[in-house]
Design a protein that fits this description.
Structural class: alpha+beta
Low-confidence stretches: 234-259, 457-463
Largest sheet: 7 strands, mixed
CATH topology of the domain at 2-37 and 106-174 and 321-443: FAD/NAD(P)-binding domain
Strand content: 15-25%
CATH class of the domain at 2-37 and 106-174 and 321-443: Alpha Beta
Number of helices: 14
Helix content: 25-40%
């Protein structure tokens, strides 16, 4: 059977990987040309890093940086306020926390979806193909050039402004600016530039180089957030196997692993600003450097000096839409930001889209007729909606200001998180393979994962 996916971003590609491994022929229709880097950096938390590795993605070859911990630092004095060390995440959650450049993650997913080797039929990506309407009856979707795309299943994975939501709900449901923080500035800084200046060298030698570092100004409703991304591949590959890891251990004997070996520092400022709520997010739109310096007014001079090293800085509005009641209708479903747009406070937006993609492929495995698809999509919604909705609500707040307001509809009382540790357990500990297997075996007791779904990939993936 054939699947048409609107959007070839992280969610669309994850769905394509899962569906091709479940026996489907997948076509993705992407608005952009996919010929330039998009966005900045992204969290790859344990709840999906363990899945990506089992799919065949190599975090080292894809230049992911392994996180050492979560640190809160005073924006005024630069003194450490609190920390959580991630030295046992693989044992606790079956995977590590990584930081990646979005383009490195996207390229790795694209290769897994389209490579000739590996299980299933390679997916096909059609660029410069924006979707302008959907028809639930066929199902089908129409492109801007008038082309009608029909398939056995249609998935809208084309972001927060997807018109697929209108088709599923039968009404418009536009996102609105977030109430807590509605604006995010993002910029990347070369580690070499920071090291070359004595005023900013501290940023490459302390906590900012180890993991996710947050400089919260709670009264001012703003946060400066930073973490390393894009591992230093040159150093990594110069050391002959099997000594690559030893090479880094010798460099930094007290901290095992390549924690300092990165090329780029990702920086973000989350704050409140008057913005045009109807403006579509544009990761490529630049703003003057003076605007980010203004957003950091009052921060420690060292932070200001770091921000001055930015060469390209972008801004986009942080938009929110409360969890919706339906994710599917007939043989059409929503996934990723189209279903559950999330603020970046928990770093789970991309991860939840990957979980959507995984579950879509698994629940549709073994489906033998088009008439069975709607029932399987109902199961997809049952497995995913409450988990994604809970994380969506929790993402309205930072880890340092936990709020449980609005969670009662999606979680049982005793399971509602009350601490940062509870939230990490909820997000990192979710096992969508186990949950989906359990749900499918209730439907079909003989159900098993597709052959080679997590099998060895012949051509190791390099982003």
């Amino acid at each position: 059977m054939e699947v048409a996916i609107a959007g070839a971003g992280i969610t669309g590609l994850a769905a394509a990987i899962s569906l091709r491994r479940s026996g489907y022929k997948v076509n993705l229709y992407e608005r952009s040309s996919l010929n330039h880097e998009v966005g900045a950096a992204i969290n790859v938390p344990p709840n999906v890093s363990r899945l990506l590795v089992r799919w065949g993605l190599d975090p080292v070859k894809s230049r992911f940086v392994k996180s050492r911990g979560l640190f809160f630092v005073s924006p005024i004095t630069l003194e450490e306020q609190s920390s959580t060390i991630f030295d046992n995440h693989e044992e606790l959650y079956g995977g590590n926390i990584y930081f990646a450049h979005r383009v490195d993650l996207h390229e790795a997913l694209k290769k897994l979806a389209t490579m000739k080797d590996g299980p299933g039929i390679p997916a096909t990506i059609h660029v410069k193909s924006p979707v302008v309407s959907y028809d639930l009856e066929e199902p089908s979707m129409s492109l801007a050039d008038g082309t009608l795309i029909t398939a056995d299943l249609v998935i809208a994975a084309d972001g927060i402004h997807s018109i697929g939501v209108n088709s599923i709900l039968g009404r418009s449901n536009p996102p609105e600016p977030a109430q807590q923080s509605n604006c995010c500035y993002r910029f990347l800084i070369s580690k070499a530039d920071l090291e070359a200046d004595t005023e900013t060298r501290f940023f490459t030698q302390g906590l900012p180089s180890l993991g996710l570092t947050i400089y919260p100004d709670i009264p001012g409703q703003r946060r400066f957030i930073t973490y390393p991304c894009r591992e230093y591949v040159h150093r990594l590959l110069c050391a002959p196997p099997p000594f690559q890891r030893i090479y880094y251990v010798n460099l930094i004997p007290t901290i095992p692993g390549p924690f300092f070996a990165y090329e780029v520092c990702n920086c973000a400022i989350i704050c409140n600003k008057e913005l045009d709520k109807n403006k579509t997010e544009d990761w490529q739109a630049s703003v003057p450097k003076e605007e980010i310096l203004e957003a950091l007014a009052g921060y420690h001079p060292g932070i200001i000096a770091v921000a001055k090293k930015a060469t390209e800085q972008g801004r986009w509005p942080l938009l929110y839409r409360p969890p919706i009641s339906k994710w599917h209708k007939g043989n059409m479903a929503l996934a990723g930001d189209a279903a559950h747009p999330m603020l970046p406070n928990l770093g789970q937006g991309g991860a939840q889209g990957i979980e959507d993609g995984l579950v879509l492929g698994l629940v549709l495995h073994g489906c033998t007729a088009k008439s069975e698809i709607s029932e399987r999509l109902a199961l997809y919604e049952k497995i995913r909606r409450n988990r994604a909705a809970s994380i969506q609500v929790l993402s309205n707040f930072g880890l340092d200001e936990t709020s449980t307001t609005g969670l009662e509809e999606y979680m049982e009382g005793e399971k509602i998180p009350s601490t940062m540790e509870d939230i990490l357990q909820l997000t990192y500990g979710g096992d969508m393979v186990e949950e989906t297997t359990k749900a499918m075996r209730e439907l079909q007791p003989s159900w098993n994962l597709p052959n080679a779904y997590f099998g060895e990939v012949a051509d190791p993936v390099m982003g």
